[in-house]
């Protein structure tokens, strides 16, 4: 394993094109994703050369949700305050859908892989 890591590092150094980080703007949202790199002649990158971190996509995950504090009084249909006998709830093996796809105009952080043939959108850029 160590030899593979060493070889990968040598390959990057030999390529003369090390990994670089860029700011970009999403021009076209998925599925026809394209981005424009800033500071590099405003280069437009097409979807064929882009890899996107899962957190920036619409995706589903299996989750277990639980709560042990269900004690609030509620009013339903004007029937007045009442208590439920529930004190906890567990949703085991449930599915949660994340609707976090990139949108046109968003600023993103892009890492160009050595060789310049793939670009990884690793996160959104937010300014406070």
Automatic annotation (TrEMBL):
It holds the Pfam family DUF2577. This is DUF2577 domain-containing protein. It comes from Pelosinus baikalensis.
